[in-house]
Amino acid sequence: MGLLLGLLLLDHLTVVTYGHPILKAPESVTGPWKGDVTIPCTYGPLQGYTQVLVKWLVHRGLDPVTIFLHDSSGDHIQQSKYRGRLQVNHKIPGDVSLQLNTLEMDDRSHYTCEVTWQTPNGNQVVRDKIIELRVQKFSVSKPTVTTGSGYGFTVPQGMSITLQCQAWGSPPINYAWYKEQTNNLEPIKVAVLSTLLFKPAMVADSGSYFCTAKARVGSEQRSNTVKFVVEDSSKSIKTKTETPTTMKYPLEATSTMNLIWNWTTEVDGYLGKTNAEPGKDLPIFSIVLIISLCCIVVFIMAYVMLCRKTSQQGCCSSKELSSQTPGNDYSEDPCLGQENQTIAWINSDYAHLLHTASTDYELLATKDTGVC
Description:
By secondary structure, the chain is of the alpha+beta class.
């Protein structure tokens, strides 16, 4: 009997000690001066336990002072010093962490997180945790450069692009942007903001950039240099569509003129086109001149052949004429030139005239003799 009572007493003590929700919070938290900080305070919700009251207290002197209160009526900030920069999270069940913005040096203190639950039997259970808040002046960290677009650091011309410089430290943080120059000249300061805006980005904006960050404490920090390139969209399209000026293989003729003058030559067993490569074709006026000369040559050759045929026919006619005339003693060549034929005609007529004159002379002499 005594043993049973002992077991029941032990079970009651276990429920009292471990059956209620347990608050979890760190011993201390360090926040940046002029920055924001979150003081964690959480618990694991238990079935049958209902949160009734949440308090945050700050230790000022001997007695703690309530600065935040949450009950069934809502949130209540008890001190004017914390209004506008203090809030408690209610979105996640069991999370009652305190967020404090724009830390001042006199915010350093011990803060108490206190939660009250109603148990299943109607009683109330209170648990609390004390956390030390430290406020420290942090020097600025090394800034990083990011871009506000999906193009990265190579963008097309005409786009609105931003380069962002980000650093962590005690605010306020002063930023500056620089563009490097060639020939070891000093960089040019182009902006004094955390964001460098190109609206729109031009080809002349291409170059190497870096940013600097400076806080109230510590030295100035510089980011890595980034190469920002703005591509000329018109040139890139022209480059893609432009035909190469040199080819390793002969090109096919693409016009009627090329088909006409598409001569071929054979050198060492390789058959290649004389106008295969672009840029080596004859100019238009040269082609027209060649065609004109060829036409003139063809016309002259046709005219010569026609004249020769006409001369042969005239030669044959002269031969027939001379065969009917007595005393023909010129050359017997059937195809004399036009000048030789003219001379032959003159000689023939002259001989015929002499022959006729001799006959008449003889007849006159005979008449005279008879008279005598």
